[in-house]
Amino acid sequence: MSYVVLARKYRPPNFDALVGQEHVVQALANALTQQRLHHAYLFTGTRGVGKTTISRILAKSLNCTGADGQGGITARPCGVCDACRDIDSGRFIDYVELDAASNRGVDEISQLLDQAVYKPVVGRFKVYMIDEVHMLSTTAFNAMLKTLEEPPEYLKFVLATTDPQKVPPTVLSRCLQFNLRPMAPQTVQAHLADVLARERIEADAGALRLLSRAARGSMRDALSLTDQAIAFGAGALNEAGVRQMLGAVDRGHAVRIVEAVAASDGAALVAAADALRGLGLSAAGTLEELATLLQQMAVLQAVPDALDATDPDAPEAQRLAASIAADETQLLYSIALHGRAELGLAPDEYSGLVMVLLRMLAFRPKGQGAVPRAPAASTPASAAAARPTATATAARPPVAPVATVASAPARVAPAPAPAAAQPAVVAPAPALRVVARESEPPPWMDEAPFEGEELAVARAPAPPPVARPPTVEFTPTALGARWAEVVRGLIDAGSISAFTRELAMQAQCIALDERATPIVCRLRVERETLRAAAPCEKLQAALAESLQRAVRLEVEPGPAEDSPAKRDAAERARRQAHAEQIIHDDPLVQALMAQYKTARIVPGSVKPH
Question: C-alpha distances in angstroms, 546 versus 189, 260, 309, 551?
C-alpha cells in the first residue's frame, strides 16, 4: 500500500478530533443538535486551518445514517456508515467539491446549479462545497445569487475562502460566516506530539517547537514539515536536524546580539553578523528570531508572572529582560521588524543585517550602558574658562518669581496727518515668555536620571528668544487716506485686474488736482515693473471711469512712504496685536501660565476675527 502523508492520514474525522477551532465546533454542533440548520455556510481563514475538513465533517453530520442505518442528523457522525465512508474517500455522489480557482466561470457554476433541481440520489442532503470561492468571476457570483438565497430544502452550500474581502457583500449576506483562526504554536506542538506518538516516532521537544513555529498557525503546514523532517532525520526528529532543515537561527545568536547591544559593544555586534555569515544562516531568520526574543522580553517586563516554565528559552529571556529597560526593548523590537523589510534594499542581506544591528546601538536612549563620566578634578584651564560664566551669572539680575510679560502698546498714526509727520510704527504682538522660579526644577528634571548618568545642568536653561514679527512702518500723508479710498472703490467695483491692482496698492499719491481738466494724479511707485505703460494706462482708464471725468496719470520712480498696501498691513498688525493682548489678559490664560512655569503663548497662534 502506498504511503499516505500525515496531513491526509490524520485529517480529523469528526468534530471531537478537530483542534484549535473550538468556537466553530461549538456553534455547528449546537446547530446540528437543535436542528437549526442554515442553508449556506462560509468558512474563512488562512491555509491549512481546517476549512475543507469542517466542510466534510458537516456533510457527514447531515447525511450520517448511523452504524445500524437508523441514524439521523447528528453532531457526532459514526464514521462507519456508507455515507461517512464515501465522503471520507471522496466518492459520495451527493457531496460535490468544486475548486473555484480552476472553475471560476459562469458556465461551470451554471452547470452545477442545473443539478440542484434534482433531489439527492443516496443521501439526505446535497452539499455543494466551493473552495476558494473568492476566485469566482462577477458573472458567476451573480448567477448563483438566487439559488444561494433560496435553495431547495435538501441543498446546502458550503463556501470556503482565504480572502473574504473579495467575496461580494451580496454573497456574504446570504451565508452564515465562521472565521477559522490561525492555531497557536502550543496547540500545533501538542497535536504533533500526539501524531508522532501514534506513528511511534521519537521526537524531542526542541524539534517540535521549531516545527510548530515554522508552521505559522497552519496545521497542514506543520504536518507537511513533520513529514519532511522525518525523511531528513531518517525516521527520527531532533532539534539540530530540524534546525538545519528549516535553516532556523539558533536562539544563542539572538542572545549574543542582545547582550552586545546591552553592553554597547559594536565590535561584538559586527562579529555576531560575521559568524552568521560564516554559518550560512539567513539574515531575515536572524531578525525574526531576534524579534521573537525581544517580544518575550517585553512580555516578561510587563507581566513577570507570564513566564512559561515549559519553555527552555524563557529563563534566558528573563535574564536579558532584567538587563535592558522596557522602553529600549520596545525600540529594539521595532528596529528588528522594520529591518526585515529593508533587507531587500541593501547591497546584500548581511550588510543590511549589520546596519540594522548598528542602528540598534546608535539609537539607544541616552544614559543606557557605559557612559563616560566627567573628571573629578577640573584643570586650571577649565576653571579659568568657567570663571567668566560664573561672573556673568552673578551679575545677571534676579529672575522674576512669577511669569513676566514684555509688551508694547500698538500705535497706528491717524490717516489724515501733515506731510512732515513722523513715521508711524505698528508694534508687533506682545512677546510672551514665562520664567520659572529658580528654586523649582522644570518638569523634565523631576525624574531621576538614568543609572550611570550625571546631571550636567542644575536647572533648566532659559528658553530661546521668541521670533518677533516684523514691524510695519509708514509715513501718513495728506493724500494717503484719499488715495486709499479711491483704490478701495476700484477694487470693490472690480474695475482693475490683478497686475493693475498691485500698481494701485503699491503707489503713493503725491499730487491729486481734482479741479483741473483733466484731473491730474501723480503717483510714486518704487518697482520698475509696475511703472510699465500697460498697467498705467489701465489704471488711468479705471480712474476716469470711477470719477466720471478725464484723468491724466503721471508716474515717477521712488519709494512709497504711504500706500494702500502699507495701510492695510498696519491695520492687520494692529488687529493682531489687539487680539493677542486680549488672550494675554484673559484670567484663565494667566492662571494656566502661572500653574505651568514653562508655558508660553506661541506668537502667531492667535488669529483675530
Answer: 92, 82, 93, 10
